[in-house]
């Protein structure tokens, strides 16, 4: 039987680089990926190598890659993961059309500062070729980048995973390095790493002209650094079923990353329609193993990164149980504390004293969704403008004022300025005639239109829209026993001049469907479920608009989709949707934002057993001038935190969500 093998690398510390180039989230990412590959994906610990910081030298990484190749047998499933700095260096082999090799930076490399021990894409490609001779099932995940040229907000406290390229001449570099044998030139995909291949799937944090930033995940009120790609990708992987593909998890994760940072677009290249981790036999284990018990407290080797939330309740079943059975329940626990990779629970009931032991299995029976408010960092100064805005936001149920934004947003009061100089905060805002409020991500990117002092009500409205937009993208049914899960597909259609719709094929390089501004788009829903259901299509636009596209808002009555049926929407003459670029995006037409020529739009298909009103999700764009679905929607869009929505039983109705994203390419503006 094929084995599952992996090499996981995470590097925060670069002793040859200055303090501002050190990272904080990469080792967390590596431990998270190492943990997930074991549980729930079943990789044996002895088949996984983990290298972090000082262990992750050039020699150790290349040695681990060589060992991985040598140990791989026919059709083994292989994963290579890297989180750390990426860069570029002058091509020594004359085989790169750009004249530069893409590189990953080991712990002991000085990169552009000298003593360059980076590992080039050519060196990795040689190992990939040897690996591909043994197996076709290779997954590469690079949460880094090799573009260090983009101007960033000087006020941003979030590191990016790239450093300047090493542009020294070939003659200078040959004093430090020995070139490889010349290879045939092959154009890489838009991630800039390798040529698209039939033997592997590559998921990268961004395009080759962008930066992969670190992400401030909020876990039980604490800020935990991760990579934006890794955080969202692993959370989607945890929802996977036996037929989930790389494209399924990638599209949803990529949409979340771009919602957080509009200038970061994750890329997928290669065999994106392959079943996740390469085998249709895979089925995630949907339980938590009990790690230890101490009195009435138990611990688990799974945490927030695995979807565990404080207040959720679990049924404890015997060792080896496949599902929660009422007749075999040992007891119940409630989660009381959650960290990134671990959780602690309190025993609330137990059939017989001491029945709950290590390695017993916990199955979720009640999911606590937590607090849905958007974290907003705003200094509590004595300025009148600040106090006026704080008063508005303190009155909002969708906003939480904090000192550190984490995965939320930051409010900055910018002074009037005739030009943007080096070191000015929020350079993307451009020149300003009067004091102006800017809403930015922790990366420093504008995430809402600029507002003048005195427009506090509009600022609050925009922040509440951001909160609803993000939470609308995050809504999923956590019930593993949902009978609707995996029974529905959503396909994007192109509608040419002939009017005959055709399925839009994702670009092999980049992994997503690409539409040009002005193209015609339609949607196809297919059901393999054995009963009629009700479907709603919601569009999450580039600039924060959330719109119901089926049913139309003026046609409230929902018509059920027949059992095991297919329907196309909307392909009627004169009713087909146009792909549009929002007029108010980017939010400031400065030189910094002129590069914003692409955006990611997301369609979410909500499937329910009963007619359900999703009008609560709808909102216009940001202004320039339990598993009970009804309870969940109310909590999310009113901002009410909740610890318990009831057991995962179809008290309300069964439901599921399918997500598809596509890239919109903006036409050049005169």
Structural class: alpha+beta
Strand order of the largest sheet: 2-1-3-7-8-11-25
Question: Which CATH architecture of the largest domain?
Answer: 3-Layer(aba) Sandwich
Characterize the largest beta sheet: strand count, sense, and whether it forms a barrel: 7 strands, mixed
Fraction of residues in helix: 10-25%
Which strand-content bin applies to the residues? 25-35%
Please compute the radius of gyration using only Cα atoms: 25 Å
Which parts are unreliable, with pLDDT below 50 for 5 consecutive residues or more?
A: 147-155, 590-595, 641-651
What's the domain count?
Answer: 4
Count of strand segments: 33
Predict the CATH topology of the largest domain. Answer: Rossmann fold
| Gap from first CA to last CA | 60 Å
How would you summarize this macromolecular structure in one to three sentences?
The chain has four domains: 4-278, Rossmann fold (3-Layer(aba) Sandwich); 288-366, FlgT, C-terminal domain (Thrombin, subunit H, Beta Barrel); 374-472, no CATH class; 474-665, no CATH class. It is built from nine helices and 33 strands. The protein has a seven-stranded mixed sheet, sandwiched between helices. A six-stranded antiparallel barrel has the order 12-13-16-15-14-17. Strands 19-18-20-21-22 form a five-stranded mixed sheet, covered by helices on one side.
């Amino acid at each position: 039987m094929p084995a599952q093998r992996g090499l996981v690398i995470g590097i925060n510390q670069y002793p040859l680089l200055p303090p501002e180039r050190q990272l904080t989230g990469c080792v967390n990412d590596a431990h998270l990926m190492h943990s997930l590959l074991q549980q729930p994906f079943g990789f044996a610990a002895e088949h996984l190598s983990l290298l972090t910081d000082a262990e992750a030298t050039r020699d150790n990484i290349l040695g681990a890659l060589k060992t991985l190749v040598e140990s791989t047998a026919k059709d083994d499933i292989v994963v290579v993961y890297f989180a750390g700095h990426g860069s570029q260096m002058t091509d020594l082999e004359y085989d790169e059309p750009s004249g530069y090799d893409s590189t990953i930076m080991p712990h002991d490399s000085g990169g552009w500062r000298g003593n360059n021990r980076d590992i080039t894409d050519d060196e990795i490609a040689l190992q990939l070729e040897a690996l591909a001779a043994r197996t076709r099932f290779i997954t590469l995940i690079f949460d880094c980048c090799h573009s260090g040229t983009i101007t960033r907000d000087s006020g941003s406290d979030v590191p990016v995973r790239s450093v300047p390229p090493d542009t020294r001449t070939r003659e200078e570099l040959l004093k430090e390095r020995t070139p490889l044998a010349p290879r045939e030139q092959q154009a890489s995909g838009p991630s800039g790493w390798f040529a698209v291949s039939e033997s592997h799937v590559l998921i990268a944090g961004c395009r080759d002209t962008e930066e992969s930033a670190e992400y401030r995940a909020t876990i039980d009120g604490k800020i935990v650094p991760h990579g934006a790609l890794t955080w969202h990708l692993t959370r989607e992987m945890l929802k996977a079923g036996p037929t989930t593909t790389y494209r399924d998890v990638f599209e949803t994760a990529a949409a979340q990353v771009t919602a957080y940072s509009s200038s970061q677009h994750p890329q997928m290249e290669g065999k994106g329609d392959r079943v996740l981790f390469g085998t249709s036999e895979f089925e995630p284990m949907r339980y938590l193993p009990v790690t230890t018990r101490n009195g009435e407290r138990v611990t688990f080797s799974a945490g927030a990164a695995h979807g565990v939330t404080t207040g959720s309740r679990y049924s404890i079943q015997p060792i080896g149980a496949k599902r929660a059975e009422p007749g075999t329940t040992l007891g119940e626990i409630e989660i009381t504390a959650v960290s990134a990779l671990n959780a602690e629970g309190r025993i609330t009931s137990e059939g017989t004293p001491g029945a709950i032991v290590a390695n017993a299995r916990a199955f979720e029976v009640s999911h606590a969704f937590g607090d849905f408010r958007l974290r907003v960092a705003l200094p509590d100064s004595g300025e009148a403008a600040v106090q006026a805005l704080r008063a508005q936001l303190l009155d909002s149920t969708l906003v939480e004022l904090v000192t550190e934004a984490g995965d939320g947003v930051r409010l900055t009061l910018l002074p009037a300025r005739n030009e943007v100089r080096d070191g000015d905060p929020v350079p993307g805002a451009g020149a300003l005639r009067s004091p102006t409020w800017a809403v930015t991500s922790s990366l420093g990117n504008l995430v809402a239109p600029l507002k003048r002092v005195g427009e506090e009500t509009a600022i609050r409205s925009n922040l509440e829209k951001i909160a609803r937009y993000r939470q609308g993208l995050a809504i999923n049914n956590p019930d593993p026993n949902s009978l609707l899960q995996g029974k529905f597909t959503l396909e994007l259609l192109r509608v040419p001049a002939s009017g005959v719709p055709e399925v839009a094929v994702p670009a092999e390089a980049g992994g997503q469907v690409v539409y040009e501004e002005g193209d015609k788009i339609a949607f196809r829903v297919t059901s393999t479920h054995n009963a009629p259901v009700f479907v709603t299509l919601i569009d999450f636009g580039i600039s924060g608009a959330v719109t119901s596209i089926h049913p139309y808002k003026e046609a409230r009555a929902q018509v059920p989709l027949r059992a095991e049926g297919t329907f196309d929407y909307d392909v009627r003459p004169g009713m087909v949707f146009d792909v549009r670029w929002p007029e108010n995006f980017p939010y400031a037409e400065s030189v910094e934002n002129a590069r914003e020529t692409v955006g990611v739009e997301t369609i979410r298909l909500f499937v329910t057993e009963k007619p359900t009103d999703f009008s609560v999700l709808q909102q216009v764009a940001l202004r320039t001038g339990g598993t009970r679905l009804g309870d969940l929607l109310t909590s999310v869009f009113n901002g009410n935190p909740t610890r318990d929505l009831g057991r995962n039983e179809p008290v309300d109705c069964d439901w599921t969500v399918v997500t598809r994203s596509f890239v919109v390419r903006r036409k050049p503006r005169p």
